[in-house]
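Class, discuss our next protein.
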Amino acid sequence: MRVNCGTILLTLIVLLLLPAILHPACSSYGVDASPSPEGTVMVAEIKGEITRSTAYMVQEVLTVALQTGSRLVVFYVNTPGGELGAVNEIMNLFELSVVPVCVFVSPSGSTAWSGGTYLLMASHIAAMSSGTIIGSCQPVMGGQPVYDAKYVNAMAALMMAHARLHSRNETVAGQFVYLNLNLLPEQARDSGVVEVVANSLPELLSKLEGKTLIQYVNNETGTVAWRLVDDADAERYNPVRKIPLSGVSGAYPLFYQKPVKYYVLDFLVNPYVAYSLLMLGLFGLIIGIKTPGYGAEVGGSISLLLSLLGLGVLGLNVAALLLFALGFTLLLLEIKTGTTVLAVGGITCLVLGSLIVVPAGWLFTSTFVESLRTLLLTISGLLAAFFALIIYKVGKVQRLKSKLEPETLIGETGTAKTTLNPKGQVLVKGEVWSARSAGNTTIPEGSRVKIVKVTGLTLIVEEAE
């Protein structure tokens, strides 16, 4: 099967341009000097089902907020819930965050059901907009509510523990789980579950003016807890830490734009997608082993890696390293074999690895991570161009070689360049070949001859009629 070089080149170009097309245009978060004397506020969004992809994104948002010196992180939340593991991880990230976190159920009509309410309870500041709802936190497994007291009590205790850590109504927190309680903004505020009701970010920040977020020892429980209080009341609690919010309404908002890698992860962590990729990968490997050379083993390997990432078996960095290793292996094999499918598969692995490698972490600045990602994508591009050139050149050589193969000359006619007695030379298609006459007859110079057989590099000819 012949492969069109133009198609290969187009495929490689699309693979290279795809990240640039899909990646949202976003400003660098490396703010050297705040545009406002009141500092900055990081603003991000948690929308849709909460998954491990969401947890990775939240970690990156909190890291960027710390690196930019933001005073507050505001998460717009609109979610039906999500995976327990991801929700629990995000709650822990909130509790450990150096920058205070505000969960803002907004805009109007948004919900923070189930996992969303858990996130709200773990935030330093809880806020809702008019027409929003929180609650319905009974655990669900396999699409069905769970009534087993072991799980229900555990989830209620988790909710109540975080409510205590933030000086919120523990009784109502438990009812979110036990009774599937739902509350509107005013009800939630009056019940001591949220601190602020606001309909926009400016209104939210304005209502935080004159407030201080304190961490203190609760005399009733003996535990350290957070509380949002008026500036004048802060010292009454003997706080161990104070975060004044004075002037926060004038802070410059840094809007976090979700990178393409999280859209890819959102797709991969879908259980239906992950298991489909797993089956596709396994069958691809089996077919590839049985019928090598058609690319099934390459596609199967990539599908298998992506499925393991989606199922949570591999973390982002491990999956990225494996994709790089597989990509370079395929490119090395491409040099040895000269097939095009290995080059396409190798470049695909490098591009995917470049997209998901090293999420912004506590040891790396966001500028460094973006520079690293740009460098890796550039390297992938150069490799793509290099192998595209190799593929093109190899294709030309193969086409030329096929034209010069002696076997392809059988049946063609030419001219006797010398007298064949019985050996001599003939001119066929502009090329001079060694020849021998069939039956060892003599063929005069200049006679028309027809190739009837090929022995090695010698043409067996007879006089043409």
Remarks:
- The radius of gyration is 34 Å.
